[in-house]
Amino acid sequence: MAKKIILLLALIFLTAANAEAAEENDLPFDTLAVAYPPAENEILALIKMKSDGKLGFMVAAKDLDSIGLFPCTRANYEFYLKKDAAGGYPPFISVMVVPRAQRGQVDENLGDWDEDVHIIPIYALFDFKDGQIICEKPFFSASGLNPSHYQGKIQNPNYERLIEVFMTNMPRLHEIVESKGIALP
Q1: Residue 64 pLDDT
Q2: What's the CA gap between 100 and 91, in Å, rounded?
């Protein structure tokens, strides 16, 4: 059931993002907050579906021909705010949905597929210093959607970049969400 919901959201987001003539009001979602880094060649957006009010994160970079979608969960939103008992940061564990992905590429056997939608579990190590997230590559994944171990390295540079854009822009998105007074569940 969750897989179907994620896939439906991914397809709606991609269709809306690619509609060249669409006015913002015609999109099936509202953009609540957008983090643009100084170079403005990538974004992390908090979006809300008009149909049911569900929230999600959409990530994109100008030099990539794809977008990544992440569920809007408290764990995803606050992944860098909590330390473990040893004083370090636990790994970022989530799922990324990549609509219009192409089979036959590296990482094809990671995660799961529904036609041309690639759903990839992610395990990423990082550090948080001086207000910035420092990603430790490689990122890891596994086959299937509920892995007990993440032993496959994510090798697709587009996927790596989407994950990195999500992680490194989250502190800035927090600032924007708080400045706008947006309450998240």
Answers
A1: 86
A2: 27
Grouping H, G, I as helix, E, B as strand and the rest as coil, residue 159 is helix
Contact predicate 74/184, CB 8 Å: yes
Nearest to 122 by CA among 105, 147, 158: 147
Tell me the pLDDT tens digit for each residue of 141-159: 999 999 999 999 999 999 9
Whether residue 121 is preceded by a cis peptide bond, meaning omega within 30 degrees of 0, is: no
Instruction: Give the whole-number percent of the chain exceeding pLDDT 70.
Output: 84
The type of residue at 70 is: F
Whole-Å CA distances, 174 to 1, 67, 157: 29, 20, 26
The torsion defined by the Cα of 156, 157, 159 and 162, in degrees rounded to 10, comes to 180
**Is residue 104's pLDDT more than 90?**
no
pLDDT (0 to 100) of residue 39: 64
DSSP 123: E
Neighbour-count burial of 133, counting CB atoms closer than 10 A to its CB (0-12 exposed, 13-18 middle, 19+ buried)? buried
What's the whole-number mean pLDDT along residues 6-34?
Answer: 57
- pTM equals 0.85
